[in-house]
Amino acid sequence: MAFKKEIGPISAAFLALGGILGSAVPFLPAIVFAYGGPMGILSWLIGFVIMSLLGLVFAELGSTYPETGGVVRYLHFSHGAFASFFNAWGTFIGYFMAVISETVAVVEYLAFFYPSLFHNGSLTPLGEIVTILIILILFLVQYYGVKLVSMTNDIMTWIKVIGLVAFIIITPLLVFHSSNFTPPSGIAPYGLSGVLTATSITVYAYAGFRQPIDYGEEMKNPSKDIPRAVIYSILISLGIYFLLSVVFLGALNWSAIGTKPYNWSYISSLSAPIPQEFTSNILILGIYFFIIAIIATISSTLVYFGSAARVLYANAKNGYMPKVFLRLNRSGVPYVALIVSLLIGIFYLFAFPQFLSEASIFSVASVISYAPASVSLLVLRELDNRKRVFKLKYAKIIAPIAFSLGGLLIYWATYPTTLYTISSTLVGIPIYIYYEIRNKSKFRNIILTELKRGWWYVAWLISILLVSYLGSFGGINLIPSPYDMITVFLISLLFFYLGYVYGKYGFVKE
């Protein structure tokens, strides 16, 4: 049974917006100030530049190779099985963390009215039960087909985009404290490092641009719709998130959230930061935003849930997951992969019952899986001359810069977040070797061929982890700023070109 091509241009764009305008909406416009103070608002602009470069890379790859779960297929084409599996493993971690973090965000916001769901920074047992019920409902929507998913997501995306624009326009007319932008303690209380750490968390918002790519085989005209969806969604999201942060800071009432003025770090402890800043006669604004935030988060969860299943499908197609993941139901949905995604999502719920920790791990895992596409882009241009409807200009300059800036995004997430995420990604290596031995019984082929093609990817991450431990972003500060960041950028450039060279020998033509 084949996938059904039922996604048109608007639905393609809304898949991206559905992923981007999710649980980041109720949290990140406030969290950037917890990390960076008033200057934290610049994190949206820095994150936009970096994620736009990566987005342009994916716009070409996604339109040229419209594959279900395409993100794990590009490295398979350019660098062979090991690099592809290692990339897929990082994607698994990111998508599964996204599914559970989005659902946990819904319940944390519900705790605004039902405090028994959330206590001392984590979900209560009742909160975990409610989270599981929400996941089960979204599972059923996904199970009955991509048409139902796209229709549901279209409706919710229209509501949240219109609702957020209205909120951004109305709120400053009713309340705006300009003093929050120029506090006595200065606009950058945590310095440049605080702004850059805030930038790393904005990945959680922008990362959803890749969702249309994972549904590539289900689109009516992917060669045109994927680039448009990626580019437009990132631009729209910059505008919405930047303005939401301005609105949040302008409306921030320190006494309403229960702390002294300019206690920036306290913001990250709030379960519903934006609704909690509204009191008395403007409480209705908080309730209005609460409704929009719930719709935005559920919509995003729905999109990520389907993407997680399609990544499992794609890796089974590559030959490095059980073939049972290739089974489709009557609606053309990879239902076995969807069921496994459900079970893994529930497991992550019990392991990480708090939104912010989940969001940080998701952000790092996303960049780990996104950045290597820049290497694939140049390799596949050289080795595959198929027609490219969308072709990125100046790719030989943009691709290495995008990859190296991706390395900085990982580094800025701070140690030990880098340790947790990169270590989890490295766990995929023995799993890959097991599948190679089981499927081919050619261990020599693994050592001399596949690992040779992909070793640069692993070495790049281990190098960043080492600098993260030695550097100034949560590390022991043996390599002080800015030398630590310069080191990460130069190391990333080196591994980009090593990946490019080894990619010439890893091309798999299908």
UniProtKB/TrEMBL annotation:
Keywords: Membrane, Transmembrane, Transmembrane helix. It comes from the Archaea. It is a multi-pass membrane protein. It is found in: Membrane. Pfam families: AA_permease_2. The keyword Membrane applies. One of its GO terms (molecular function) is transmembrane transporter activity. The chain crosses the membrane at residues 12-35, 41-61, 82-106, 126-146, 158-175, 187-209, 230-254, 282-313, 333-353, 359-380, 392-412, 418-435, 455-479, 485-503. InterPro entries: AA/rel_permease1, AA_Transporter_AGT. GO terms for cellular component: membrane. This is APC family permease. It comes from Sulfurisphaera javensis.
